[in-house]
Specification:
about 425 residues; alpha/beta; 14 helices; about 35% helix
Length: about 425
């Protein structure tokens, strides 16, 4: 497998898959968070410093037509220019940019219009279908077109660099299919994907014990695969968030109006049994901050999680649980955190998630390796200004989850073969 550090881009055109699906201010249209743009800078600068030219390609949102001004990457040109420190050329049509790509000189950057303006990018047909069979046939017919689309993109450049970890779990034209048109020595990961894989492999394959996984969020069903994959690796499993109450209910507790997946009670018990058989310590919240309604101005009370009053719902962990979880984290050498402890978007129910964020940061300061992944966990770390106090913050929500579940990601397999 080719390594970006070992490659000389002098005189080469590199087509780079980045993830510039950035949030925009609804009123001004300006980029409101340029984290993803900044994440791509090391790769872009390496290519330019070597004397190569860069063709950037990305998606934005979920457009249903071509073109769709609401999702045009033209809106982010100034933000990219500000970060790279030079003028960016723009191709109005990503599938018809041959002339602009051919004219690109060393040291120059060309940004292609939104890849998803073409249904060939996702390989997913648009429109309404009368039957599932008709939809399947349309998808099948789209496959060769997706290949042609990827071949066209590949024709713009000498080298392919994938630096969009957030889309690596999708078998899209620009993330997986395009790699088929480059020799092994001319396709590679960028610095961002490299760092993601190093961080995740450190947790999955080289974790120092005690290894603690903190799993939060609403549903057990969303996390079952990652939990099962981690049971062979962790010493401690901390459960938080809404899925707490599926475990509590499964064990006979009173949960009031708290969120619960009634069809997953047996699954929750199975997880507890598997953990016990493997010697994994499972920590489930013992007390909670309850609300009389799901609202920022709700009345609150504290109770044991298995004694939630009728009509009330648990929306955050309380002091006893915070102390227990914080102690487990403090004694850990490896920490993986995915999912909040409560409805931290509401200030009344943010204390538990904030406390866990600080506990992870403190453990990191004491020598633990910490990996944070999943939109809400990342948001909690950023909200508390602790991103630089943990070992690694992943940029890929769904991609990170699938990698941690042990799945093969098409965008990764396309380059490293596994």
């Amino acid at each position: 497998m080719q390594i970006i550090d070992n490659f000389n881009f002098a005189g080469k055109k590199a087509i780079v898959r980045v993830d510039f699906n950035v949030p925009l201010n609804k009123e001004t249209g300006a980029v409101s968070d340029d984290t993803r743009i900044r994440g791509a800078l090391p790769t872009i600068k390496k290519i330019l410093a070597d004397g190569g030219s860069v063709i950037l390609m990305s998606h934005m949102g979920r457009p249903k037509q071509n073109p769709d001004p609401k999702f045009s990457l033209k809106q982010i040109i100034s933000a990219v220019e500000e970060r790279v420190g030079q003028t960016i050329q723009f191709a109005e049509d990503c599938a018809n940019a041959e002339a602009q790509a051919a004219a690109l000189k060393p040291g120059e950057i060309l940004l292609l219009e939104n890849l998803r303006f073409y249904e060939e990018e996702e390989g997913k047909p648009r429109g309404e279908f009368e039957t599932e069979e008709a939809k399947k046939e349309a998808k099948k017919a789209l496959k060769p077109k997706q290949k042609e689309f990827a071949k066209k993109l590949a024709s713009y450049a000498d080298v392919y660099v994938n630096d969009a970890f957030g889309t690596a779990h999708r078998a899209h034209g620009s993330t997986a299919v395009i790699a088929e048109f480059f020799a092994e020595e001319n396709k590679m990961f960028g610095y961002l994907i490299n760092s993601e894989l190093i961080a995740m492999d450190k947790v999955l394959k080289d974790a120092q014990a005690p290894f603690t996984a903190i799993m939060g969020g609403a549903k057990v069903s969303d996390k079952i695969l990652i939990i099962e994959n981690l049971l062979d690796r962790v010493q401690n499993l901390i459960i938080g968030g809404g899925m707490t109450y599926t475990f509590i209910k499964a064990q006979g507790g009173e949960i009031g109006n708290s969120l619960c997946e009634a069809d997953k009670l047996d699954l929750a018990l199975e997880i507890l049994e598997k953990a016990k058989a493997k010697g994994v310590n499972v920590y489930i919240p013992t007390d909670a901050v309850n609300a009389d309604k799901f609202a920022a101005d709700a009345e609150t009370c504290v109770s044991k999680t298995d004694e939630t009053p009728a009509g009330w719902m648990g929306l955050d962990i309380a002091d006893e649980t915070i102390a227990t979880f914080s102690e487990v984290i403090a004694n850990s050498k490896t920490v993986l955190w995915n999912g909040p402890m409560g409805v931290f978007e509401m200030e009344k129910f943010a204390k538990g998630t904030t406390a866990i964020a600080h506990a992870v940061a403190q453990a990191t300061a004491n020598g633990a390796f910490s990996l944070i992944g999943g939109g809400d966990s990342v948001a909690a770390i950023n909200k508390n200004k602790l991103a630089d106090k943990v070992s690694y913050v992943s940029t890929g929500g769904g991609a990170m989850l699938e990698y941690m579940e042990g799945k093969v990601l098409p965008g990764i397999e396309a380059i490293r073969g596994c």
